[in-house]
Design a protein that fits this description.
The complex is a heterodimer of chains A (381) and B (267).
Chain A lengths: L5 H18 L3 H7 L4 H10 L17 H14 L1 H20 L2 H12 L5 E4 L15 E5 L4 E12 L6 E7 L10 E7 L5 E6 L10 E12 L3 E5 L2 H5 L5 H27 L1 E2 L2 E2 H4 L1 H29 L4 H27 L12 H10 L6 H10 L3
Parallel strand pairs in A: 1-4
Antiparallel strand pairs in A: 2-3, 3-7, 4-5, 5-8, 6-7, 9-10
Chain B lengths: L2 E6 L2 E3 L8 E2 L6 E2 L5 E3 L1 H17 L1 E8 L5 H8 L5 E5 L9 H15 L4 E5 L10 H9 L3 E12 L2 E8 L2 E8 L2 E5 L11 H7 L4 E4 L41 H16 L1
Parallel strand pairs in B: 1-6, 1-8, 6-7, 7-13, 8-12, 9-12
Antiparallel strand pairs in B: 2-5, 3-4, 9-10, 10-11
Helix pairs in contact in B: 2-5, 3-4
The chains are: A alpha+beta (381), B alpha/beta (267).
Chain lengths: 381, 267
């Protein structure tokens, strides 16, 4: 591939080895039990994969987007959940990294880079993630104790109940004139007043915890108010949009993963004296169509990642485009692969239908596709 | 207190692609073209032990491999685990070596780049699996050596305790350093490479040595000419499969029955 070099081949080999030996043997069982991949995330940290999106001063060696993409693609082949769990750490840390707060770097970001724990970004409310002017969660400042007091609730918080720290978005008190309408506050999981609510039972992404968060007079030191922002546009683009490209490359990997498994099954399953692959031209043509989709997506995704590496400003918008296209192609490939596997495609133990379920959630995670398309439409010239 | 450790590393065809490997009916050798090459799995356990010892005692881990120039790729990969330097013994004169010629050549490479406190290597490679090289290497180097290591301890720098499986028992041996240890896959769990080490691998010392670089080399002992072992024939394995239902009330019963079927079939 045009973007590969010696180092990336080694990264690919490292990530493939990890995915095949550490994820593949257990993924069906952990998926069935909806187990959060703490141990895998610890290993991902130890291997330095999280460090690929963190700058040196935060314990990383990045951002190196193509290098990270090569790793996420391999991990995505075996588990879209683990790939997106890594993405969720980028979503959380990207804002913290920008702030450059020494204490936060030492106590939160560096341990995350080492895989010691995960964090969560708690933003979405019943009116929607991005309709932040309508959000209810808010805070006030207690001048006597120099604390901020959060009240309200969140839904669909990724990593709810599993994270060590929550980066909570809450409305600022207007009378305090903090210089913006929204504040981002870091809250430790054991902080009094913070409660994890119901954990959702989703159609896919089993093991990636999604749940409610409640804040009932949740008091945190004033210093935990890390950022005040003026408009929801700024916060909508947290992570600089790069998260779209990361989710896209995970989806590319997952599309390839289910495609490769299905192709192998079709070649091994015999109908009489010929494999089903050799028996049906319609089947071979479907594989060819899926392969074309996957390679088309590869070109887009790695083009965007390389653009990000080069600091191309267009790459941010393209990152969201990649996310939309990847979500659709992943879902299409996963859907077709169920059919290509015949009866085996719908048996959970075979690990094929899991990809389709993940593809549906992948279309929603970190902004549903209609919202992203709206953003893209609003930026048309 | 620092330890200077050499790890001998072999590059073998990818075991996942063994079903694609053909045999040359005339030369009786493997036809490897088009088959990916990887670090021999057992050698990874030797690398892991070396890196654990480096963490405990400090020092340096040097990889030594004999083979074609293309082995550089796998040596760089091994550097990505955290090893410090690599030496590749590469020369057309070294080609066609059996285990005796290989161990002799490796011993000359070790003498050239050493001295080392420990020489570690996989007990048997994933492809040839002769398990000759560790003992032969110890003899060429005149060092104490042991094979089939299933456990390793180093209470102090001057000696090590090695557990070796012998039949159904496990014997413990104490070896004075320097020594040569052939390790098994049971010894440890191999870590994953690390991103930072991969990026550093490119800049780590990499030495390529030819036969002419090796001192006091007896050319009659290297390559094909120095190899008393010659393959004279081979048999194709029969991979025909039949479906057999393994009866049993539960998983334990079925496992016991499966074991009985396998053992019976072997006989």
């Amino acid at each position: 591939m045009w973007y590969m070099n010696e180092e990336r081949e080694m990264l690919q080999s490292m990530a493939r080895d990890f995915a095949v030996n550490e994820i593949r043997p257990f993924v069906n069982e952990t998926y069935e039990k909806s187990e959060f991949p703490h141990e895998l995330m610890r290993k991902v940290g130890e291997m330095g994969i999280i460090g690929l999106f963190l700058p040196e001063e935060c314990g990383g060696c990045g951002p190196r987007w193509v290098d990270l993409g090569v790793c996420l693609e391999e991990i995505g082949k075996e588990s879209n959940v683990v790939a997106n769990c890594i993405d969720s750490q980028y979503a959380g840390t990207s804002l913290l990294t920008m702030l450059g707060n020494e204490k936060v770097i030492e106590e939160v970001i560096k341990p995350i880079s080492r895989g010691e724990f995960v964090m969560a970004t708690s933003q979405c409310e019943p009116c929607g993630q991005t309709m932040m002017h309508y959000h209810k969660t808010h805070f006030v400042i207690d001048r006597e104790t120099n604390e901020i007091v959060i009240n309200g609730g969140k839904i669909f918080t990724t990593n709810a109940g599993e994270a060590e720290y929550y980066l909570v978005c809450a409305k600022t008190p207007p009378e305090e004139e903090l210089g913006g309408e929204f504040g981002y506050i870091l809250v430790h999981k054991d902080n009094p007043g913070l409660k994890v609510g119901h954990i959702e039972h989703k159609v896919g992404w089993n093991g990636s915890s999604t749940g409610q968060m409640f804040f009932n007079d949740c008091r945190v030191p004033m210093k935990n108010l890390l950022l005040v922002m003026d408009s929801d546009e700024d916060t909508t683009y947290y992570g600089g949009g790069t998260i779209g490209a990361l989710m896209a490359v995970g989806a590319l990997g997952s599309a390839e993963g289910v495609y490769e498994k299905t192709l192998k099954n079709a070649r091994n399953r015999m109908h009489g004296d010929k494999s089903v692959f050799d028996s049906y031209q319609a089947m071979r043509h479907t594989f060819a169509e899926l392969k074309m989709d996957i390679e088309l997506l590869r070109g887009l995704v790695y083009g965007v990642l390389e653009g990000l590496d080069k600091g191309d400003p267009d790459a941010i918008q393209q990152s969201w485009i990649a996310k939309v296209k990847a979500a659709r192609i992943f879902e299409h490939v996963a859907s077709e692969c169920i059919v290509l596997n015949g009866g085996n495609g719908v048996v959970c133990e075979n690990g094929i239908e899991r990809y389709y379920r993940d593809a549906k959630v992948n279309s929603i995670g970190c902004f549903a596709l209609p919202h992203i398309i709206e953003m893209i439409a609003n930026n048309l010239e | 207190m620092a330890l200077n450790i050499a790890v001998c590393m072999k590059v073998t065809p990818d075991p996942d692609k063994y079903n694609q490997i053909a045999l040359d009916p005339v030369k009786k050798t493997l036809v490897r073209s088009g088959i990916d090459s990887v670090i021999s799995g057992t050698d990874l356990h030797a690398i892991e032990l070396a890196l654990q010892l480096k963490t405990k005692f400090g020092g340096m881990v040097t990889l030594i491999s004999m083979g074609p120039d293309s082995n550089e790729k796998q040596l760089r990969e091994a550097l990505g685990y955290g090893c410090d330097a690599a030496v590749l013994l590469s020369d057309r004169k070294l080609g066609g070596a059996d285990s005796l010629a290989t161990s002799y050549t490796l011993s000359k490479g070790i003498e050239k780049t050493g001295p080392y406190d420990l020489v570690l290597l996989g007990n048997a490679s994933d492809d040839g699996s002769t398990a000759h090289v560790p003992s032969q290497l110890g003899e060429w180097l005149g060092l104490p050596h042991i094979t089939d290591a299933v456990a390793f301890e180093m209470p102090e720098k001057s000696c090590c305790l090695v557990k070796k499986e012998v039949g159904g028992a496990v014997n413990t041996y104490m070896l004075c350093l320097p020594a040569v240890i052939g390790v098994t896959k049971r010894l440890n769990t191999v870590r994953h490479p690390n991103v930072m080490a991969i990026f550093a691998a490119k800049k780590k010392p990499f030495t390529r040595l030819t036969a002419a670089d090796l001192e006091n080399l007896d050319e009659g002992r290297i390559g094909l000419a120095g190899s008393p072992t010659q393959a004279v024939g081979y048999l194709d394995a029969n991979f025909d499969r039949d479906c057999v239902e393994i009866p049993g009330e539960n998983a334990a019963d079925k496992a016991a029955e499966l074991l009985r079927v396998v053992l019976t079939a072997k006989k």
